[in-house]
Design brief:
Layout: E1 7-10, H1 12-16, H2 26-38, E2 43-48, H3 61-67, E3 75-79, H4 83-92, E4 96-102, H5 105-112, H6 116-132, E5 136-142, H7 155-168, E6 173-177, H8 186-195, E7 203-207, H9 214-223, E8 228-231, H10 251-261, H11 269-279, H12 290-299
Parallel strand pairs: 1-8, 2-3, 3-4, 4-5, 5-6, 6-7, 7-8
Helix pairs in contact: 2-3, 2-11, 3-4, 6-7, 7-8, 10-11
The structure holds 3-hydroxy-3-methylglutaryl-coenzyme A and magnesium ion.
3-hydroxy-3-methylglutaryl-coenzyme A (HMG) binds at residues 15, 18, 48-55, 79, 81-82, 84-85, 88, 100, 111-113, 140, 142, 176, 178, 206, 239, 241.
Length: 301
Amino acid sequence: MIPARVQVVEVGPRDGLQNEPARIPTADKIAFVNGLADAGHSVVEVSAFVSPKWVPQMADASEVFAGITRKPGVRYTALVPNLAGLTRARQAGVDEIAIFAAASESFSKRNINQTIDESLATYKEVVEAAHTDGIRARGYLSTCFGCPFEGPVSPAKVASVAARLLDLGVYEVAISDTIGIAHPGQVPEVLGAVAAKAPLAKIALHFHDTRGTALVNVLAGLQAGVATFDASAGGLGGCPYAPGAAGNLATEDLLYMLDGLGVQTGVRLEQVMNASRRIEPLLGHPLPSRVVQATGATKKP
Ligand code: HMG
Ligand code: MG
């Protein structure tokens, strides 16, 4: 049995664009977000209020938020690493924030310049302040299936940091495969360890597709009872602080599989593809999504 309905969290404008070498004009980011909301997404991660010195691609987060057309029923979210980021996010009118920790120390240091313990102390303040303002917080947990610096990460460590994130008050933790190294044998093992400490209803899965295993990992997650999956329009993505991380699981590829399985998402594949195709000429490379590529190929004369 797999869930009849799945929540898709669209992370393309953030996880996708944060790693693109080309400068994407703010107006095109705004159109991308609007196109994704029009496609039926109910959660769009718009940008990141991180240090612009660390991730210049997200420096225009406030301008993107100011330019989007907010659709009722859509949550427009952003990454926030610290209280300075929360101040900016609040001013921009985010509906929800996402904090991001790691299950491995080396990645935590490289990505946010803090140990895991230091980051959780920072995030405790951030989540408390967000809740005071009535803003919900989601948590990401990176390197749950392997770390680019340390190699294997134990499921017990993943479960323990996931539980600590939930203790901070985040409503959900996205168990993340930052470098796209997970395979479907690992998914039940990691989820089993996490489920011993946290309800699966509060767990999402976030896959990158470096080794072509993202979709089959989703299937393993569905079979284990997870019903929330992150995906990035066009398959854009990667993390600037994770060497070897390729694109995220493409939203189009996820929707193609879920539609085929009869799983409801409320998101229209064709319209996501239109939003992705609009941004493609600005990237300087083809979209990685297999469904987009196949559809383009079949439409050619
Ligand atoms: P730091 O250098 O240790 O901290 O960075 P700092 O406090 O010394 O700040 C450095 C400078 O940045 C200062 O400016 C601050 O004011 C400024 P200066 O005094 O030098 O002129 N600053 C800020 N500016 C704007 N907004 C802010 C902010 N904070 C500081 N919020 C810090 C620490 C956490 C800030 C930095 O490491 C950072 O921004 N890291 C973010 C890295 C990042 O965004 N990575 C990608 C997202 S995570 C990801 O992709 C994984 C995920 O997809 C899940 C998965 O796949 O695993 C979520
Ligand atoms: Mg990611």
